[in-house]
Amino acid sequence: MNEEQRLEGQQSVVTKDNKQEKDYSKYFQSVYMPPSLKDAKKRGKEEVKYHNDFSISEEFRGLGEGKKFYIRTYGCQMNEHDTEVMAGIFSALGYVATDTKEAADVILLNTCAIRENAEDKVFGELGHLKHLKREKPDLLIGVCGCMSQEESVVNKILKSHQHVDMIFGTHNIHRLPNILKDAYMAKAMVVEVWSKEGDVVENLPKVRRGNIKAWVNIMYGCDKFCTYCIVPYTRGKERSRRPEEIIQEVRHLAAQGYQEVTLLGQNVNAYGKDLEDMKYGLGDLMDELRKIDIPRIRFTTSHPRDFDDHLIEVLSKKGNLVEHIHLPVQSGSTDVLKIMARKYTREQFLELVRKIKAAIPDVALTTDIIVGYPNETREQFEETISLFKEVGFEGAYTFIYSPREGTPAAKMNDNVPMEEKKRRLQELNALVNEYSANALKQYEGQVLEVLVDGESKKNPDILAGYTRKNKLVNFKGPKEIIGKRVLVKVTEVKTWHINGEFVEEVATIGVN
Fold first, then answer.
1. Strand 12-14 to strand 296-300: parallel, antiparallel, or no bridges (unpaired)?
2. Which helix (H) or strand (E) holds 83?
3. Does residue 144 have a known ligand-binding role?
4. CATH no. for residue 455?
5. What average pLDDT does the structure give for the chain?
6. 112 annotated binding-site participant
7. Domain count within the chain
8. How many CB atoms lie within 10 A of CB 168?
9. Rounded Cα distance, 455 and 473, in Å
């Protein structure tokens, strides 16, 4: 969606005081078109405009003077990155960040739509905020992010949470100044949710969390339409940033002293497929970025179907390209993968793993797995178990299937009993724990390079950091090494982390 389309009626203001209005659908239709597989697959040829000229208009200067903002983030790294952008916009408007809701003048809940429990947490938080709103009538409360793109969520907020002041989606974060001003001026619920993906907007301000690791968004959206996933509806079609913009951003981060960059995308290795004026993919981008003097570069999240040979070849050059790849498989059964619309078979996935391991023998592979998918039999679950063993994954995020409204899977017969789902998850997790522990055993007595994130969450006297292969290491050391790469000797391995002794700081290492 561009500005012209927005002005044609995509913005709506809903007055809270209209208590006699029971049919909220009339407001809703003017704001948002419900998620639909049929409609969403019509990606079409609508022009996605590229803007390099974002700036804060003079009419919004000083909007936040003397005010504080608080953002609570749910979900993935993409949501965290969106929060960094919104924090940057708030700061440019004169707001100051606070880490307590009670001190805030504006509270935003940046939401996730992937799992039902995340949605429940948001509505629970909205219930708590109702009391705070009564104490502070001038407080602005907003809901943004992926949940805001769902019809049922917006309808529920309109009907049951009228203390919310603003709702906006994932495609119009750059319009936060306008939305805030409308909320202040109208004293009404401002709803601005675009059902079509927005333009690509560069030069957005960011307030990054810390100065050690940085996320860099390289593309938006997903075109895969896995039957369980709401992301294609909440994030729109695939749109890539220009490579020169990404390279410039990473160079700037390197100059600022950042030690690690993670490239983000809902389907990050589909990067570049929509760039019509050039043939340029993630492999080409990584080949450019490995020449930049920054110690570590990662990317997430991959779809196996788009993991091509050129990317594998580039990753095998290593340097600052780490030896850890997160490769979600979701199921080890070809039949279940077909129901999921993953667009690859068990055999194709195993062949991809074979290629990766041949090129990068010391690679650490992790994955995502869903158990109890509609119609998944015991035998099909056992295929997942056997694939996990065959690949030798070193870790996994595991989930019990739960339907998301608006997805094709939500209409399927969810015929695996919950008790059976829990048994399968327990069995899978026991295997994941075993393989994680075995993977860490190989490091006993070794000296590892660790990028120190900071103090351990459980003990301020212990420092914590990660290896190139994304293994958590805890050790005692001087606080001044936080943010640096150090050598740590392994003294003990656990299921999910390593304990060690500080050896020395790593000398500056040039990259290839």
1. unpaired
2. helix 77-92
3. no
4. 2.40.50.140
5. 88
6. yes
7. 2
8. 24
9. 11
